[in-house]
Structure formats: structure tokens, C-alpha cells
Write a structure and sequence with these properties.
single chain, about 625 residues, alpha/beta, 8-stranded mixed beta sheet, 17 helices, elongated
């Protein structure tokens, strides 16, 4: 027996280092591990296609999951909902249950009706008091007055930490036994995994996606291989809420309510709901908040109309009469997929309120990266490059709202590295980080970027290089500054003359370069070096990129079509004319000098109905264009 005991001791000593290595490798990058077992549910008997991924989730000492059940006067619905929650797989996890019972309305004075309402309330309270919840604390909140759905949702939760999660369930829902395991795996993958985390994600909905709130939006169409995707719309039929975005929303809501700002968002069906129902509903508030922040929700897409959360659409506040289940419940008996196998965030598709695809995070840092983005953007083989240098953030956001309204999608924004630039990329706008982009180009030694006018020099050089890459890739290029607005979906196309490869504006800083063999022969490295060589000579003279290109092309004997010599193309906003609305008729663009002053510019744009952002610099409307 002695050799056996020695062998066991040796095996134990060898196993301990391996255990600590495993613990370190699988620990969360955001939370400290507790000293308990890495497997929070060691005795859970999982179906073969649910493991072993779940067992790799570390036991996070601060992790907290709370069920928030909202109910009113539907005892049979509540009973079905709670029984489905109690039948879910929690293993040894602690899951708290908070039940919010709204009070009946006091409007009716008929004694028989009052007695009936009082009896309904008593029966509901007796049921929830007697309901056995063995997974954690059960808390019942019985309101003294009727508050409605908005307050039920908004007052149900204020996160106590960044590791507390709420899953909000209305009482006519039925949950799959698999719902919790799926949500916990989702939290681990997309909240605690730093490589998959995005501050743009506010939670996850377990309902089957069916609704597009943007008027004239696309129908929801997903390929069979898409099991998880991101969509801006909140899902009220089983919604997981992440703590930080929910706190942010509550504070945003408080500020807007205090200032009397309504959640009106033009172009959205939900705005019509709010105008009809007012404060009886809460979703228009949250949708307006999500729109202002550019946030997204995780959704599932299971085949055959299945979901982990099913609404029975019982008669109540939302339905005059029972409509029946909206989906089929996905449970163990119908499980034919790898439920807990979740793709990296970079592989998932993102959709806006119109169910148009959004591609966040496109920050171009090199000449090579620009090429791949060009091919993804091409529309009529023309790309619009917009310089952010010297432009106000508010005016750029207003410009982007005009792009959305006019369905202009073939653009790339160029500017210095900043929080603003990264926020634009996070919201789905392709951007060029000019500092890194120019640093990546070895052909230029960057000598001309020194001096007090460095930003102007960067602006000129990046314009020269992006045109070169566009020509190499076979695309036409428009290069414009951020101090302009288009007045149509094709503001410059009517000015193109097929006999010219180069078009430019004398009053408006714009340049068009047609992709042709002759233009490619001109726009080579040597030409760009000449552009760089002229930068210092024009500093302080108010001359910029278009002037330099015009002078160099003149030396080459190449003709330029000047498209705005007499101001026919564009209207210049100034301080002299109080109202320039009538003067804008027939123009393709309006533009201004930054020296005019932001207040004056904004005032003029408002007079012309061209200021289409709100006090938070968000578009005042969602404009859908079917793809």
C-alpha cells in the first residue's frame, strides 16, 4: 500500500501546478476569481450539445443575476411564467427573483368591480407568497397605486455594481429551460471576454425578432447560418440588461423628463405609439436613447420560428384579446444546434432600426487597409472622401445626418486620431486615422509635417494619397471638406463633364478625379511628392489642396473643369443675408467659412431647414432606404 500512497502524493503534487495554470488561463480579464471551484455547476447534467463550454465559465465572486418579473392582474399568465422560470437549469448558481405586482386602478367606484379587483390582487399575492423559489432570494414588491408598464420597467432596477445583470420578464412570457445557460454563456463571451467586448452593446433579447420600427425599413431576413446577430431595437419579451448602459439610460431619461424633452424620433413607428399612448409605454424613451448613443442589442435567430422566450400575447395592456404564442419554445427535446457555441464579435452582423447592415469599427490605418474598405463601399464606382480637419464636431454630425437622409453611403471620413473619430467608427462610419495612415506610408519621409501648420499639411497629404489609392483600385474620387452640406443625393453628378478627368471648385474646396488611364499616369508618387513640396509655399496664403493640384496640373498641361466659377453649383453662407433659403434653390451644396462663427452658421442652417440634429447632436429622424 505504501507505494500506492507515494504515487497518490506524487500525482497530487503534479496536479496542483496544472490546476493553477488552468485557473490563470481561464480567468476573466475583468473580474477576480473566487477561491471556489472554477465550475459553478459541477453536478449539472448537461445535454451533450450544451457542454463542455458552460463548465469553462469561471465562478465570478461578484457576478449577480436577478430576474425581474413584472405582473398586474393575470394570475394564470404569471403562474405559467414563474413555473417556466423555476424549471430552468441553474445548477448551483444563485439567481434572485424579484416580482413587481402593479396595483389596480382606483378610477372605478363600482363596489362589485372593486371587490373583484381586490380579490384578484389577493389571489396573486397569495400565489407569489406561496411560490417556492429555491435558487436565491425571492422579493415581492406590491405597489400601492397603479403605475403602468413604464414605471414597472424603469423602477424595477438600479444596478448595485457593474457585475449585476437583470433579466426583465413580463408575466405573459414562457421561458425555455435553457434560457439561463444561454444568457450566462452570452455574458461570459460578450461582456467579460475583453476580445469580444463592445461598449455599444446594452444587452440581449431572447424573443424572436419580427419587428422593424423604422418606417419603410427592410424586412428581417437572415441566412440560416446566422444564430446570433446585433440589432438596435430593444426586445421587451425577455430582455437581458447590462448594468452600465441601463444606468446611463436612467440618467438620460431623468434629464429629458425634467426638461420636458419628448422622445420624438421622426421616421419611427414607435413615435406614433408614444403620441397615442403617452407615458403608458416606455420603449419610445429607450429607443430614442439608443439612437442618440448608437447602441445595439444581441438577438438570436433559431430556425423554424423558435425562441428561448415566447410571448403568449395574453389579453391585457398591449392586447385587447389573447393573440396566442408568437413563436415555438426551444427546449431540450427540439435542440438541434450548438446553443452555447458563440462566434467572435467580429464575425457577427449588426443592423440598425431600418434593418440595414451597419459595419462598426472600420478605422483605416494604412494604404493597404484603405483598398479593402474601398471595395466594400463602392457605389457607381465613386467614393467621397470628407476631411474633418478644421470642422466642428456638430457640423460633421449634421452632415452625416444629411448623408443618411439622402442615402449617401459611399463616403470615408478622414481626420486626426481623436475620441470623436473613434466614436464615428464605433457608430458604423468608415474613417481614416490620418496620423497612422501617413506614418504607414514609407515613400514619404514626413518632413513636410513639421511646423505650426502641421494639421493643414496632413490634410493636404492624406487627400493626395487617398486619390492615388482610389485610382489604383479603379474608383472615381470626390474630395471635399467638412464645411459643406449636400442638397441632393447626387450633389455633384450633374457637373461632371465626360471630356475632363479633373473637376474642381474655386470657391468650394472640392476636387473630382475620374478613374482613367490618363489620370492614373498623372497621379503617381512623383506627383504626390510635388504636392508635398508645394505645401510650405502656400502656407499663410489661404491656399489649400485644390489650389496646389490646379497649379501642378497646369504645369503638366492638363485641363481642369472648374465647376463653380460663377457660384452656380453652391451657395456660400454668410452673415450679410438674414435669410438665404430662396437663394439655395437650384444649388447642389451649401458651404461656409469656419471663420464665420458656429452660432451664425447654425442659425443660417436652421433658417434653411438644414439643421437636422438635436441638442445631443443626434439626427432628429431615422430615414430608411430599402436595400
Amino acid at each position: 500500500m505504501a507505494p500506492q500512497r507515494q504515487f497518490l502524493r506524487l500525482l497530487l503534487l503534479l496536479s496542483l501546478p496544472a490546476f493553477f495554470l488552468y485557473s490563470h488561463y481561464h480567468s476573466s480579464p475583468h473580474l477576480p476569481l473566487s477561491s471556489q471551484s472554477l465550475n459553478p455547476n459541477p453536478d449539472l447534467d448537461l445535454p451533450s450539445n450544451l457542454g463542455p463550454r458552460l463548465n469553462s465559465i469561471p465562478n465570478l465572486s461578484n457576478f449577480s443575476f436577478i430576474l425581474k418579473v413584472l405582473t398586474f392582474d393575470r394570475l394564470s399568465s404569471l403562474s405559467r411564467c414563474l413555473r417556466s422560470l423555476a424549471a430552468a437549469h441553474y445548477g448551483h448558481d444563485t439567481v434572485h427573483l424579484h416580482i413587481y405586482v402593479d396595483h389596480f386602478r382606483h378610477a372605478d367606484n363600482v363596489s362589485e368591480l372593486l371587490d373583484q379587483k381586490l380579490d384578484e390582487s389577493r389571489r396573486i399575492l397569495e400565489f407569489v407568497d406561496g411560490f417556492d423559489w429555491k435558487y436565491g432570494q425571492k422579493v415581492v414588491h406590491y405597489r400601492t397605486g397603479n403605475v403602468g408598464l413604464q414605471a414597472q420597467w424603469l423602477e424595477a432596477w438600479w444596478p448595485s455594481s457593474d457585475h449585476e445583470f437583470a433579466f426583465v420578464v413580463e408575466d405573459d412570457l414562457e421561458l425555455s429551460p435553457l434560457y439561463y445557460k444561454f444568457l450566462k454563456s452570452l455574458i461570459q463571451n460578450y461582456y467579460y471576454n475583453s476580445s469580444n467586448f463592445s461598449p455599444s452593446i446594452y444587452g440581449a433579447s431572447l424573443q424572436r425578432p419580427r419587428f422593424v420600427p423604422g418606417k419603410h425599413g427592410n424586412k428581417i431576413h437572415l441566412d440560416d447560418g446566422t444564430q446570433i446577430f446585433l440589432y438596435q431595437l430593444v426586445g421587451t419579451w425577455g430582455q437581458l440588461l447590462f448594468p452600465k448602459p441601463w444606468k446611463e439610460f436612467r440618467l438620460w431619461y431623468d434629464m429629458h423628463k425634467a426638461k420636458g424633452i419628448k422622445p420624438f424620433l421622426q421616421g419611427m413607428v414607435t413615435t406614433g405609439w408614444y403620441k397615442k399612448l403617452g407615458e403608458r409605454i416606455w420603449t419610445p424613451w429607450f429607443i430614442s436613447f439608443i439612437h442618440s448613443r448608437g447602441y445595439f442589442n444581441i438577438y438570436t435567430n433559431f430556425l423554424h420560428e423558435r425562441a428561448l422566450s415566447v410571448s403568449h400575447r395574453d389579453a391585457g395592456v398591449n392586447y385587447g384579446k389573447t393573440a396566442g404564442p408568437d413563436s415555438y419554445l426551444l427546449d431540450e427535446s427540439s435542440l438541434d444546434i450548438e446553443l452555447l457555441e458563440m462566434q467572435p464579435l467580429t464575425k457577427l452582423k449588426w443592423y440598425d432600426f431600418c434593418f440595414n447592415e451597419v459595419v462598426p469599427g472600420r478605422v483605416i490605418k494604412s494604404f493597404e487597409e484603405l483598398g479593402s474598405v474601398l471595395y466594400s463601399l463602392q457605389k457607381q464606382y465613386t467614393i467621397i472622401f470628407v476631411s474633418l480637419f478644421g470642422a466642428s464636431e456638430r457640423f460633421i454630425r449634421n452632415l452625416l445626418c444629411h448623408f443618411e437622409s439622402s442615402n449617401i453611403q459611399n463616403y470615408i471620413l478622414m481626420g486626426p486620431n481623436s475620441d470623436f473619430l473613434l466614436d464615428l467608427a464605433r457608430r458604423g462610419h468608415p474613417v481614416i486615422d490620418v496620423d497612422q495612415f501617413l506614418s504607414s506610408i514609407r515613400a514619404h519621409k514626413m518632413k513636410s509635417l513639421r511646423g505650426s501648420d502641421m494639421e493643414v499639411k496632413k490634410d493636404i497629404l492624406v487627400k493626395a494619397y487617398v486619390i492615388q489609392k482610389s485610382l489604383e483600385s479603379g474608383f472615381n474620387s470626390w474630395v471635399v471638406d467638412g464645411n459643406m452640406l449636400p442638397l441632393s443625393s447626387s450633389p455633384f453628378l450633374d457637373t461632371i463633364d465626360a471630356n475632363y478627368d479633373f473637376h474642381a471648385g474655386k470657391t468650394l474646396e472640392i476636387l473630382f478625379v475620374r478613374s482613367s488611364s490618363s489620370s492614373r499616369k498623372v497621379w503617381v508618387d512623383d506627383f504626390i511628392h510635388k504636392v508635398a513640396g508645394m505645401v510650405d509655399s502656400v502656407m499663410g496664403r489661404g491656399k489649400k489642396f485644390v489650389y496646389i493640384v490646379g497649379e501642378l496640373l497646369k504645369l503638366e498641361g492638363i485641363r481642369i473643369k472648374w465647376v463653380d466659377e460663377e457660384g452656380r453649383l453652391s451657395l456660400r453662407i454668410d452673415s450679410r443675408n438674414a435669410n438665404q433659403t430662396s437663394m439655395a434653390k437650384g444649388k447642389k451644396t451649401v458651404f461656409w467659412s469656419p471663420e464665420l462663427g458656429s452660432d451664425t452658421i447654425q442659425k443660417r442652417l436652421k433658417e434653411m431647414d438644414l439643421w437636422i440634429i438635436d441638442s445631443e447632436d443626434s439626427c432628429t429622424a431615422v430615414v430608411c432606404h430599402q436595400s
